[in-house]
Amino acid sequence: MATTGQSVPQGHAAIPPQNDDPRTDAATRRRRASPWRILKPVQGQIRFAMAISAGSALFGLAVMVLLMGVVQRLLEAPDQVPWPWFAGVALCTVGAYVARLGAFNQAHYAAFRLERILREGLAGRLARVSLGYVETQGAGALAKVIHDDVKALHVFVADSTPLYARAYVTPVVTLVLLVALDLRLALVALAVLALGYGILTRAQRRRRDMVRAYNAAREKVSAAVVEYVQAMPVVRNFDSGKMSFGRYQAALDGYLAVMLDWYRAAGFPARFSWLVLSPMPTLTLVLGAGLWLTALGDLAPARWLGVLLLCTGMAESMMPMMMLRHMIEKVALSVARIEEVMAAPELDAGQGGAPAADPAAPALSFEGVTFSYGPDLAPALHEISFEVARGSVTALVGPSGAGKTTVARLIPRFWDVDAGRIALGGTDIRAMSTDALLQQVAFVFQESFLFADTIAANIRIGRPGASEAEVIAAARAAQAHGFIEALPQGYDTPVGERGVFLSGGQRQRIAIARALLQNRPILVLDEATAFADPENEAELIAALSALMRGRTVIMVAHRLATIRDADQILVFDRGRIAERGRHAELVAQGGLYARLWNNYETAQNWSLGGARSPAAVPNEEVA
Amino acid sequence: MQTLAKEPRADRPARRGATSFATTFRQLAESVGPEDAPGLRRTLAGLIAAAALQGFGLAAIAPLFTAAAVGEIRRALLWFAAMAALMAAASALRWWAQGFDFDGRMVRATWRLRGRLGAKLREIPLEQLQDKRAGELNAMVLGNVDENLLYALTVLNLVFTAIVTPLCAALGIVLFDWRLGLLLLLIFPAIVPLYRWRRPALGRGKRILGAAHQEASADVLEYTQGLAILRAAGRAGEKAERLSQTFRKLEAIQVFGHRKGAKPNIIVASVVELGLVAVLGVGVWLVVQGELHPAALGAVFVIVVRLSEPLSTFILYTAMLEVMEAALERIGALLAIRPLSQRAPEVMPRTHDIRFDDVSFSYAQAEVPTIRAFSAVLPERSLTALVGPSGCGKTTLTRLLLRHFDPQQGAVTIGGVDLRQIPAERLNSLVSVVFQDVYLFNDTVEANIRMGRPEATEAEVRAAAQAAQCLGFIERLPQGWQTPLGEIGGRLSGGERQRISIARALLKDAPIVVLDEPTAALDTESELAVQRALDALVARKTVIVIAHRLSTIVGADQILVIEDGALAQAGRHEALLAAGGRYARMWAAQGAVKHWTVAR
């Protein structure tokens, strides 16, 4: 027996769609994304699935008509089995569910294929956009787009598309059949449907505002919970219980108010239309009307039966649409985010190779570089000009936010400059191909990143062709050989996801070994020692010394003591170079650098509670 | 909704659907609380009764239609009246029962439950709280309460309609024609064993798919995080190729899992649908035998078509039910966590010297103890520094003092009183902590400082801010003291944030101060100001400081050198240097670093 439709579980009419994603719906506001557009790569298969699904719906309706035929035959000749009709019923039943499952399967395979295609496309895109884009978006957020947002499409692509076909085909064909069977009863069924939908529309009237209020309230609760939970040690130590719990409670109250408001506004119509659109009222009214017409002798039992079999199909196949609408709104957010990443501008890579060997040109030069992070933001760098001689060490110092790190990140083209140019050996970096640029420069960042692979493989990323001896030599120079050898599997030890099995200093030394193996003439260090634990610091510093030997170095530094002997110190202040020179000169000048140096020295000599009078302590010294 | 249905927790063991029902109800009743549990019970009874009435109402179609077809209009009218009455009663009952949702009682119940869960979070041992990631808890408290309780009645209503209604309709048909009724009774329950047969496979498939997704997700994150390195190494394309392989593998697993599920789907559908066709076939045979009126058979068609619809989605509903059960279980588990026990009698210490007495402690999942037979005395108003390699147990010692957990052996005392005898609120009032990671709340600057002591006067708040070197930058903020930190928190430097947290501790003025590496990861300029703020904070207090940079603690009254959770050395800086042990080696290593420059 074919069913009239495999509906999605019908949700609560009064409850808005949930948007669990704390990321705002800014993406949708920017561009109303249609989920249908994203189906393009698998369009053919989806259309096929929808066609089969429509076929299944038609089979289902055919079963109803044939059942009516069976009864009609039996009424005419009660002693004869109406074989053709009955066989038709069996056949169409099988046809309906086979087609239904077939459509379901096709849509799923298409969905799986689409997921892969989109993920590959996104990953490929990220390999070509500017690293600045990756950094501003955040690696985690981009990973979420590639994995979670693409996954979120599944419900729409795999489950909804066949239902869509059914939701359009069934009501139309049903109505035609009903009218053909008996116009009066068809009108009764239609009237109930119209009444239900009329009320439902009223329930949906303020929907958009409601959804917005709902999502905002939810987000507030979510933020309050995160704050409350993350800060629990602080909450317990400082907050006697009122403040943070109060904010959590206030967020809950806000949410409750929105929900109650929702029920007040939409509760009755939603509840009422739900009742009207359920099969029972239609069935009862068609039975009553049919009984009346039968009493008048104006209705054949078989036709009445046909109407009874078909009349609930319209509402039933359309109800999932209400659910689908919620679903599609939710999916649209994911689609918008996917499309946004796909539309991220690619870095126009130059075609040029390595810079021409111009021995006169400086290794690196900034020429009147101005740069800002966004069109409406104040420039982060104003007309910065400096040159770095081959084999020299240049230190970038200054208060936080002065532009040091921006300078370091413009060299590998995380972003492109707004004005001026950056040249390597006299060649504009924008004229070089990405590969050529990167073959000139090695980077060691504040936080070193390791891949979930073996230690050897992580070092070898620097130069895939390197021999084992070269890898070991690099590790030795980076002061990493000792601890690597001590590991159970030595160089073949897996470092765990993002290097979790190693300490910060150990990870950093592996990153330095990687850079050593790369053996590139220019080295950019961005606070390479910032997060090292003190026990490892000595080794880390020895590793850095090995790395810097014989290279042109540009380093961002906070510990001013380490750069006392730098060839050139550039002191940044609010996006400009305020002072430049060597340590001794700058200290003598008595300007910004002198002040920074003075602060630094004072901080270095501070000892906690220096002004206190010592207390007597009874603990015995332990051996 | 459907996402939920498709992804119940993969980690849940398969359970018998029948036995879990009572459990689910009990948990649901617990979740809505004693205020609404009776109402909920009545509501569920109402929904079941409505489903039953609907079933009997449907069964009434058979005699009604038969009577009409043979021209017995009067009898048909009677049946119609009965049927309409049953349907109306079913609708009215359901309308009434759904009032639990629509009158906002359910929303209020979840609101209350969340309040309860929030209050619970404040008293469960922090060790257990910090085991779980904040996100998971967030999902638990927020997401689950919502999706599980707000949808509970909707889902249960659907399940009742899928089970109770067909059952009652079949029973009704038994009264009308026992042979057809019995056949229907055989077909409808057949879905239950079919469902049980499918369920372990569904769970298995979901687990495999879940694992594949997890792997892909980790690979994607590694790719995006490592993109800078990969690009710098010129190997982004290659890694992208590897990522592609992961995606292809995921697709293969998805397709494989779906194929495996497709065959049983066909079998289940065949059994149910062909079974119903067979019942109709028997009906036709009965008609031909002259034992059943054709019109009666037609009416049975109508009823069966009506019933097969909810049946075909039955499995989907049970999956949703399963998600709900899992969430209720987690809520119940959270509510069942006991707070750390309070020993009688309650005592409030009068002095504030701290003593660790032969303390040993291991974390719940750890194989080796983190703290081993640790004893130390910290006299009132002394400054004690804890030093040692990372992971040696320094932070665990301070957490023991804050009673984030209790030691398995030994005791920690303040003023001679075991921490377990001090009420939690009072203990918190005795100790201030300045953490390395500063947490500022989404409130104004003033509120963030004032939370240290809500009843403080404006002058006191100001004085604390001044002593913590905050006054200057606070007054430069756009709205001064009233600037909300939620919007601006990111724009404050690490040092400024740290100084606000110190002002908070200053205002609280607790006799004991714990400093957990408060100057790590600050830039030089901030460091200077933070140092001044700290000097103000530690005056006249019993202080414990964890320090990496040894030069900052040379003035400590005692330095405790900790190695592998045990006390290795103790004494003043000079004495320890003279002793020439572990501390002296650490000091020498840090001295060398201090003099390193970039010169070659």
UniProtKB/TrEMBL annotation, chain A:
One of its GO terms (molecular function) is ATP binding. It is found in: Cell membrane. Residues 364-599 form the ABC transporter domain. InterPro entries: AAA+_ATPase, ABC1_TM_dom, ABC1_TM_sf, ABC_transporter-like_ATP-bd, ABC_transporter-like_CS, P-loop_NTPase, Type_1_exporter. Residues 48-330 form the ABC transmembrane type-1 domain. Signal peptide: none annotated. Residues 1-32 are annotated as: Disordered. Its main location: membrane. The chain crosses the membrane at residues 48-71, 83-103, 163-180, 186-203, 272-292. Keywords: ATP-binding, Cell membrane, Membrane, Nucleotide-binding, Transmembrane, Transmembrane helix, Transport. One of its GO terms (cellular component) is plasma membrane. It is a multi-pass membrane protein. This is ABC transporter ATP-binding protein. The lineage of its organism: Bacteria, Pseudomonadati, Pseudomonadota, Alphaproteobacteria, Rhodobacterales.
Automatic annotation (TrEMBL), chain B:
It holds the Pfam family ABC_membrane. GO terms for molecular function: ABC-type transporter activity; ATP binding; ATP hydrolysis activity; ATPase-coupled lipid transmembrane transporter activity. It is found in: Cell membrane. The keyword Transmembrane applies. Keywords: ATP-binding, Cell membrane, Membrane, Nucleotide-binding, Transmembrane, Transmembrane helix, Transport. It is a multi-pass membrane protein. The chain crosses the membrane at residues 44-70, 76-96, 149-174, 180-197, 266-288. Residues 44-322 form the ABC transmembrane type-1 domain. Residues 354-589 form the ABC transporter domain. One of its GO terms (cellular component) is plasma membrane. PANTHER family: ATP-BINDING CASSETTE SUB-FAMILY B, ATP-BINDING CASSETTE SUB-FAMILY B MEMBER 6. This is ABC transporter ATP-binding protein. It comes from Paenirhodobacter hankyongi.
